Amino acid sequence: MEEIVQSARAPEAVRERQPEVYDAPRVPGKGPIDWMGGWKWGLLAVPILLGAAAVFRVYQGFTALSIGTDSSTPQFFWYYEFLVAVEIGIVGLFTILWWGWIIRSAKRLPEALGMVISRREEVRRIAVFWGLVGATSVNLYIEASFFPNQDGAWHQTLVRDTAFTPSHDPMFYFFFPLGVTLAIGTYLYGRTRLPAVYGAWKGFPWSFFLLIAATVTEVAQVAMNEWGHSVNLGNAGAEEFFSVWFHWPFVLYGWLAGGIFALWGETILRLYQIEKDEEEGVSPVEAATATVTSR
Amino acid sequence: MKRALRWVLLAALAPAAALGLVLGSATPVFAHGERAQDAFARMQTVGWWGVNFSKTTVQQGDTVTITGTAKILETWPNNLSNGNPDVCYLTVVEPGAQFVLKDRVINGVETPQSFFCHKGGIYNFKLTLAGRSPGTWHVHPGLAVRESGTIIGPGQWIRVTPSPTGFANLITLLNGQTIDLESYGQWFVVGFSILTFILGLAWMIKWTWSKPTVTRLAVSNQLPLNQDGGEAVGLITKRDHVQSAVIAGLTALLLVLGLVYQQVAYRNTLPPQSDWIQVPSVAPPQQLASVQAVNATWDGVSHVMTLSVRVHNTSGTPVQVASFRPAYLTFWNPAVGVPKTGPYDYEMRLSTEGTVAPGHTQTINLTLPGTVLETEKLIPVGKADMAIGGLVEVRGASGVRNFDTVSTALNIVRL
Amino acid sequence: MAIAIPVDRKADELRRLVFKRYRWIDRKWDFMFWFTAAFVVAAAADITRLLFAGDWDFWTDWKDREWWMTITPFATIIIPSALQFIQWRAWRFPTGATYTACCVFVAAWIGRVVQWKFFVNYPMNFVWPATWIPAGILLDFLLLETRSFIVVSVIGAGLWTLAFWVSNYAILAPFLQPVHFMGHTLTVADVQGITYIRAQTPEYLRVIERDSLRTFLQETQYVSLAFGTVLAIFGYWVGQFIGRYLAVWPIGRFLKQI
C-alpha cells in the first residue's frame, strides 16, 4: 500500500480541512529502512566515535610515556592539561550546534506546519532514533570499557600526580561529557521527531530519565573519584587498588544506563502500532487523531 | 551523502594533521610524578643515599644494577600508614614494563616480595634489572610502604639497545623445564579462550540467525514470564532444545577436558605465594655526632632556604657536615667536594666550613638554592604542613658516615 | 509446569504472530539491535567486573584460592543476569548470559591488548582476562530448561561459579607451577609479578590468601567456591533488579513532573 501525499479537499459541503500527509522523498536505496537511508547515521556513528577514541589512543601512544609521567612540566601542561580545555571546547561546541539544530529545525518539521507524517516517514525517524541510541551505546563502551582498561593499566604502573593524567583526559573530559550530550540529544530528537512515543504532552520518559541520569552521575562521580584519590581517607586513596570502594559508584551509576533497553522496547511497540495501522488501512491522519485523543 | 562524507573526512583529517604537528614537538621528561607528592611526604618519609646505577646503556637482556640505601625516617608522618610503616616493597619506578627485575637483595638477603619494615629502618639494596624494550627510559628505585604509596628515589636515564636475538625472560621450573616468561602459556590462554568464544558464538548464532528478534516481543508480551508456549506457539521448539543441549554439552565437555588436562599436565601446583620476610637489621655505624634542626627559613624574594642545624660531636675526632639530603636530592658541602652535578646533586653554602671539634657543639646554617627546591616543589609554602626535613650527613676523619634525620617547621621570611 | 492454555485458538494466534511477515520490520532491525546493544552490554559488564573485581582479573598473580573465586563470580554474574531477564522477557531467547559473556570477551581482549600490552608493555600471558562464556552458556541452558529465574538464581549461581572456576583454572594452572626464584620457591605467576615491574602495584597490595590459623587445611578453595556461590546468588538478584526495574519497567512510563 503506497503512501499518497495529498491534501484532502473538502467539497462544497461543510467539512473540516484534513491536514496534509508528509512523506519523505523517495530516493532508491535511501528508504526508511535502507542502510544508506534511515540507518545511515546509526552506521556512521560507530566508526566516527571509535575513530575519535583511536585518535586519542594514538596521541597517548606517542606522548604519554615521554611527557605524561610528570605533571609539573610545561610540556605536560600543553599536551595534557590544555588538551582538557580543547576536549571540553569540542564537546561543548558540538553540544550547542547539535542540540541547537534539533530544537531549531523542529519548528520546520511537518508537524509544526500543521501536517501529519506518513508511516514511512515515522519508520525512518525511528531508524534514525535507533542510530542515535546506538551512538550513545558506543560512547558508553568507550567510556566504561575501552578507557577504564587503560586507566587501570596506567595507574597501576605509573605514579598518579594529577587529576589530568593521560588516561583520564579522553575518558573523563571527553567521552564522559559526550555521553551526556548524546543521551540528551537523543531525547531531544525523540521528543521532537517521535511525538507518538516521546511527545512532551506525555511527560518525561522514565527510560530517558535513567539513561541521562547515568551519564550525568558518571560525570559527577569523577569529582568523588579525584577526591578519594587525593584525600586518602582510611588509607584507601594512597594505593592503586582498582576495586577500591570510591570507584563503586561508577558501577552503580552505570547500571542506570539499563534504561537504554526501554528505548528499544518503546519504539518497537510503536513499530507494532504502525504495522497494525498499515494492515488495517488506517490513514496517517486517523492514526494521528487517535494518538491525540488518547492523551 | 557525498556532502556528509566530505564533512566526515574533514573531521577525521583535521585531528590527524593536528596530531602530526603536536607529536613532532614531543620531548621527553624524566620525572615520574614525584614532584606532585607533597613536600612533607617526600622529605619526612624516606631518605636516600649512595644510589648508584652501574650502567647507563645496556643491550636487551643485559643487566644493570641499582645499589643504594633507603632509610625510613624517624620523622615518618602520623597521617601516613597511621604513623606506623610496617610492610614495604622495594620497587623500580619506570614508564611501563621496559625492564625486568632479576634480583633484589636487601640488607644482604634475597627479597623476592614484600618485607617487614619499621620507622628508622635502614635498607641497603641491590636491584638487578635486565633491559627489555629498546628505548631510553628514566628509572628510579622506589620504596612502597603499605597504605602510603610509593616514595621515589633519585633516577637515571638508561638506554636499552636492541639485541639481534630479541628479548627472552627465561626461568627454570622446579621440574627442570626452562620457559620464557614473555610468552609461556600464551597460546593455550588465547586458544582456550577462543574456543570458548566459538562456543558462545555458536549459541548466539543458533538462536538469532534463523529466528527474528524484534518481532518476537509481540508474542512474548502475551505469555506469562515462566512460559514459552512450547511447540504449539513455536517460539522455542523441541529442535531448539536439542541443539542447545548439544552446545551446552560441548561446553561441559570442554570444561571437563580442561579440568582433566590441568590435573594431568599440571599436577603439582602451588597457590600464589605470600613470602614476606623480615630482613636483618643493619649494624649501625659508630655514632659520631647528634644533629638537630634548629630552624628553617624561606625567603621568597631572594629564593633562598636556610636550615640551621646544631651538631654535637660525641666522638673523639673532628667531624664534618658533608651533605644535606631532602627527599631524593643531595646538597653538598663544597669543602668535601661535589661528586657530580645535577639533576639530583647540588652545592650548598655553610656558615662555617662545617667542621666540629670533638666534644663541641656548633650551630651551622646551611643555605640551599631555592630555585632547585622550587623546581622540585619541595618548598612547602602554601601547603597544610610547612615542615622540611631530611638527612644530614656527617663524616668522621676515618671515613665513617652518619646520616641523621632532621625536621623542623619552615618559617617564611618573605613571600 | 505449564499452565494449560484453555483455547488452542490462542496458541494458533500466537504461532501466526511468531511467523508473521511485516511491512517495515525486517531483519535489519534485529541486526541493529544486537550490534548496537553489544556495546552498552560490554560496557556495563566490563565496568562492573573492572571496578568490583578488576585487580584479580588483570593479573595472574592475584588469582588465588581465597579471594578470586569469592569476589569474581558476584561481580561477573550481575549483568548477565540482567540481560537474561531482558532477553527472555522480550524475545523468549535464553541468550542473555552468553550474549553478555561474548560481548565482554571482545571488549576485555581489546582492552588488554590495546592498553595493557601496547600501552604499558605487559605480556599478554600476565594480563589475560578470564572467560565467562562457558558459565554463560550453562546459565542460559538452565534458563531454557527450567524457565524459572528462582531456580536459575540458586542452581545457576553455583553452576556459574563452578564453570567460571573450571574454565579459567585450566588456563591458570601452568602459571601455578613451582619455580625457584631469588632463592625462594614461588609460582610462575609470582615471578611474573616480580619481574614485570608494576611501580604502583606493590606486591603487598595483592588481596590474596595469606596463611592464618584458620585456612581449613587445603579446603580454602572449596570454602571460597561455596561462599562465592552464595554471593553470586545475591549478585544474580542484583542483576534481576537491573533488568526488571531499570530496563523493562520504564517502558511506556512517564514522569509527570521532574
* Overall strand count of chain B: 24
Question: What is the architecture of chain C at the second tier of CATH?
Answer: Up-down Bundle
Shape type of chain B: elongated
How far apart are the termini of chain B? 63 Å
Mean pLDDT of chain B: 90
**Low-pLDDT regions of chain C:** none
Structural class of chain B: alpha+beta
Major β-sheet profile of chain C: 2 strands, antiparallel
Description:
The complex is a heterotrimer of chains A (about 300), B (about 425) and C (about 260). With about 300 residues, chain A is mainly alpha-helical. Chain A contains nine helices and three strands. Chain A has one domain: Particulate methane monooxygenase subunit c2. Chain: C (Glutathione S-transferase Yfyf (Class Pi), Chain A, domain 2), CATH 1.20.1050.50. Chain A has a two-stranded parallel ribbon with strand order 1-2. By secondary structure, chain B is of the alpha+beta class. Chain B has three domains: about 140 residues, Particulate methane monooxygenase, b subunit. Chain: A, domain 1 (Jelly Rolls), CATH 2.60.120; about 80 residues; about 130 residues, Particulate methane monooxygenase, b subunit. Chain: A, domain 3 (Immunoglobulin-like, Sandwich). Chain B is built from seven helices and 24 strands. Chain C contains nine helices and three strands. Chain C has a two-stranded antiparallel ribbon with strand order 1-2. Chain C is elongated and about 80 Å long. Chains in contact: A-B, A-C, B-C. At the A-C interface, helix 1, helix 3, strand 3, helix 6 and helix 7 of A face helix 2, helix 3, helix 4, helix 9 and strand 3 of C. Strand 3 of chain A pairs antiparallel with strand 3 of chain C, so a sheet runs across the interface.
